[in-house]
Amino acid sequence: MGFVDKLKRGPAFVKEAWAELKKVTWPTRKELVSYTTVVLVTVTLIAIFFAVIDLGISQLLELILKAGK
């Protein structure tokens, strides 16, 4: 399939994509706020978890390296 053939299929693709978007059940504002809150809280908790793990590993390595001197 050449470049020109792909260009000719462009409008058909857009039409099909638009038809699929019309079938989507979009979330209500309340659902959207709820889902967004869950994502932000989850990401924050995971970031804190990894920060604590990183700090612990750093402290452990520092302790090991000081003991080796």
From TrEMBL:
The keyword Protein biosynthesis appears for this protein: no
Keyword Transmembrane helix carried by entry: yes
One term of GO molecular function: protein transmembrane transporter activity
Major location category of this protein: membrane
Taxonomic superkingdom: Bacteria
Membrane topology (UniProt): Single-pass membrane protein
Signal peptide: none
UniProt KW keywords: Cell membrane, Membrane, Protein transport, Translocation, Transmembrane, Transmembrane helix, Transport
A Gene Ontology biological process term: protein targeting
One Pfam family linked to the record: SecE
Compartment(s): Cell membrane; Membrane
GO cellular component: plasma membrane
Listed transmembrane segments: 32-53
Task performed by this protein: Essential subunit of the Sec protein translocation channel SecYEG. Clamps together the 2 halves of SecY. May contact the channel plug during translocation.
PANTHER family with a match to the protein in the record: PROTEIN TRANSLOCASE SUBUNIT SECE (PTHR33910:SF1)
UniProt family annotation: Belongs to the SecE/SEC61-gamma family.
Subunit structure: Component of the Sec protein translocase complex. Heterotrimer consisting of SecY, SecE and SecG subunits. The heterotrimers can form oligomers, although 1 heterotrimer is thought to be able to translocate proteins. Interacts with the ribosome. Interacts with SecDF, and other proteins may be involved. Interacts with SecA.
HAMAP family, per database record: SecE (MF_00422)
UniProt name for this protein: Protein translocase subunit SecE
Source species of the chain: Aneurinibacillus thermoaerophilus
Lineage, broadest ranks: Bacteria, Bacillati, Bacillota, Bacilli, Bacillales
Gene from which the chain derives: secE
